[in-house]
Amino acid sequence: MPAKQVQLQCEDQIPSALDKCIADTIIKVGSGIVAGGALSLVLFRRRLWPVTLGIGIGTGMAMANCQSKLNSTDVVRRNLERK
Predict the structure, then answer these.
(1) At what angle do helices 49-71 and 10-42 cross, to 10 degrees?
(2) Which residues does UniProt call coiled coil (predicted)?
(3) For residues 40 and 51, is the Cβ–Cβ distance under 8 A?
(4) What is the C-alpha to C-alpha distance for residues 13 and 69, in angstroms, rounded to an integer?
(5) Which letter, b or e, does each residue of 42-80 get, where b requires 16 or more Cβ atoms within 10 Å of its Cβ?
(6) CA–CA separation, 36 vs 32, rounded Å?
(7) 82 near 55, Cβ under 8 Å?
């Protein structure tokens, strides 16, 4: 039996997209910290810059994903078409 796709109301689309963005940001920043920490311990003799670089890359990737998710919602698209 296929799962039913639930249509969200207009006022529920943006908070839903923001919730997904926050979860995605936490995952990407966390993986950046882990990857940077591993590189710092193994290759760079416990320097801080690989961890900082990992956090920055994770944040940038999360921001790009959030922009595309928020721009793809129907509410934003309708508001841009009105202007």
Answers:
(1) 160
(2) none
(3) yes
(4) 10
(5) eeeeeeeebbeebbebbeebbeeebeebbeebebeeeee
(6) 6
(7) no
